[in-house]
Design brief:
Blueprint: H1 2-11, E1 18-20, H2 24-33, E2 39-41, H3 49-59, E3 66-71, H4 76-85, E4 86-94, H5 106-111, E5 115-118, H6 126-135, E6 145-149, H7 154-162, E7 168-171
Parallel strand pairs: 1-2, 3-4, 4-5, 6-7
Length: 176
C-alpha cells in the first residue's frame, strides 16, 4: 500500500517522498517505480522510534520534519516513528491497520501540534479516481505485478510477498 500511496502523492504534486520499509528489495523497487524517484529508509531494530525518525529526517534532508506522514503498515513501531518524523504543525495520517490498540506517542503528537487523521480505504469515488490515475499513466499499476499464479499456488504467493520476494501477485480464480 505504501508504494501506491507514494505514487498517488507524487501524482498530486508532492515534491519529496520518502518510503520506509524493513525489506530493502521493496525500497529498491520503489526508487525506480515512483515517478521521479523517492527517498528510502530502513529503520534500525536497535533504535527507539525517536532515534529512527531523527535518522530518517537527516538521511533524507527533511530538516525539521515532513509536512505529511502517512503510516501504511499498521505496525506500532512505524506509527511511533511517524509521529516523530512529522514537522511541528504537520499532518499525520494513519492508513495501515494493525492491532486494535498500540502504544502511541500522544505527547509527541500534542507538543508538536500535529493534525492526526484516520483513513479507511474504499470510499465513494476511489475506484473512479484509481482508474483515472492508471489510465492517465500517473500510476503504472502493471509494474507492481511480480507474477501471476494459479489458485492452487496462492499460499506460496502470499509467502513470497511476505518475505519481500514479490510486490504484488495476481492469483487466478478457481478453474473448473
Amino acid at each position: 500500500m505504501a508504494r501506491l500511496c507514494a505514487a498517488v502523492a507524487k501524482g498530486f504534486g508532492a515534491s519529496k517522498i520518502v518510503l520506509v520499509d524493513i525489506v530493502e528489495k521493496r525500497l529498491e523497487f520503489a526508487k525506480e517505480w515512483v515517478s521521479g524517484g523517492c527517498g528510502t529508509f530502513i529503520p534500525s531494530k536497535d533504535k527507539s522510534a525517536q532515534e529512527n525518525a531523527a535518522a530518517l529526517l537527516e538521511e533524507n534532508g527533511l530538516g525539521e520534519g515532513a509536512d505529511v506522514v502517512l503510516e501504511a503498515s499498521g505496525a506500532a513501531s512505524s506509527a511511533q516513528s511517524a509521529v516523530w518524523a512529522c514537522r511541528r504543525g504537520g499532518t499525520y495520517v494513519q492508513a495501515g491497520m494493525g492491532a486494535d490498540s498500540i502504544q502511541f506517542p500522544i505527547m509527541g503528537l500534542c507538543s508538536k501540534e500535529i493534525t492526526a487523521k484516520g483513513s479507511f480505504r474504499y470510499k465513494q469515488g476511489d475506484y473512479a479516481l484509481a482508474v483515472a490515475l492508471v489510465s492517465n499513466g500517473v500510476v503504472a499499476a502493471e509494474k507492481l505485478i511480480s507474477s501471476r499464479v494459479s489458485f492452487e499456488e496462492a499460499e506460496e504467493a502470499f509467502g513470497k510477498v511476505k518475505r519481500g520476494e514479490a510486490i504484488k501477485v495476481l492469483i487466478e480464480g478457481v478453474k473448473g
